Amino acid sequence: MDIDKKIKEVLDKGFLIKETNFAQQFKHYYKGKVRDNYSTDDERVIIVSDRLSAFDRVITLIPYKGQVLNQIAAFWFQETSKEVPNHVIKVPDPNIMIVKECEPIPVEMVIRGYITGSAWRAYQKDQDVKISGIKLPSGLKKHQEFEGPIITPSTKASSGHDEPISKDEILNQGIVEKEIYLKMEEYTKKLFSIGTDLAARHGLILVDTKYEFGIDREGNLVVIDEIHTPDSSRYWMKSTYEERFNAGMDPEILDKEFIRDWLRIEKGFMGDGEIPPVDEDIKISLCKRYIKNYEILTGLDFNLSVISPDDHPLDRIRGKLVELGYLK
To answer: What kind of architecture, by CATH, is found in domain 3-103+297-323?
Structure first.
């Protein structure tokens, strides 16, 4: 089936995962912007919805988004597991990930290879600005590559905006113990190195990303949540970057920045006030960008047929959780 037609069919039928409702059968429940988390004593069942967040708010629903995110994260967790331990136990369904229960660390490790996004906007206003305590070189151009990746941590807020924070502030305030923080830095550099190398081999630039960490029940530091997805990372097409950069043009984007730009430029929306409706063609375009990201990175065809023409994907998810013994 034509991909545009299939995506439109999902939209027309409303076969999107807005939320799940299994809390009564689990010990704990936490609803994130995109992921619904259900916990037992030792495990966490993560169901990745089709919710799209931007500017720290849920904006709309995008067909197949949860499936793309879950399967890309699963791919990257597998690719990096020999270098950096993670929380994954198994991935029994396109939208489900079973993971070890961990104590999250309230700092996100953001690592940047290029100046773009919020860092560029701050730098454009004042070249003397410090990003998470780091003074950037003068004279940088938008989308320019740094001499080497920089780590710009942020606080992991339970609600509202995450805020940049320096390494010294993290350590001086005792937010994270020094030994653990240094290990987080080490893992962040390893993950980003693996990610940039693999992306480059497949014709993409991994521009920047963020990692979340937690401590498992054995006291080990592990990477949690998601890694290198088009929600948590910026990706550009490598083949056209140089030409477009030299011409002062924006790169070809294969991540969520596409809809952030659309909201900012077309709708004048920066997160405050009423959320504007998202046009159907924008939803379809973003869905196709996410699918293209998945197919380029993994070398696999994306399975559109995982959403049945007759059954809502929540029926499939519920059935799998019953099969696994989490639901009755």
So the answer is: 2-Layer Sandwich (3.30)
Q: Is 42 exposed, middle or buried (0-12, 13-18, 19+ CB in 10 A)?
A: exposed
pLDDT tens-place string over residues 73-107? 999 999 999 999 999 999 999 999 999 999 999 99
| Residue boundaries of the structural domains of the chain | 3-103+297-323, 104-246
Dihedral, CA atoms, 268, 116, 251, 57, nearest 10 degrees? -40
Give the dihedral of Cα atoms 297, 32, 219, 110; nearest 10 deg. 50
- Asked if residue 236 lies in contact with residue 251, where contact means CB atoms within 8 angstroms, the answer is yes
Q: Which residues of 4-38 are buried (b: 16+ CB within 10 A; e: fewer)?
A: eebbbebbeeebbbeebebeeebeebeeeebbbbb
- pLDDT band of residue 161 (cuts 50, 70, 90) is low
Distance (Å, rounded) from C-alpha 40 to C-alpha 327? 12
Cβ–Cβ < 8 Å for 102, 216: yes
Q: Is the pLDDT of residue 198 over 70?
A: yes
Q: How many angstroms separate the CA atoms of 72 and 195, rounded? A: 12
- State the DSSP string of 160-223: S---B--HHHHHHTTSS-HHHHHHHHHHHHHHHHHHHHHHHHTTEEEEEEEEEEEEETTS-EEE
| Distance separating the N- and C-terminal Cα atoms of the chain | 35
Instruction: Read off the pLDDT band of 1 (50, 70, 90).
Output: low
Which burial class, exposed, middle or buried, applies to 76 when counting CB atoms under 10 A from its CB (0-12, 13-18, 19+)? Answer: buried
Residue partners of 278: CB distance under 8 A and separation at least 6:
52, 59, 60, 259
Q: May I ask the CATH class of domain 104-246?
A: alpha beta
pTM: predicted TM-score of the whole model, two decimal places: 0.94
> How large is the C-alpha radius of gyration of the chain?
20
Q: Which amino acid is at 192?
A: F
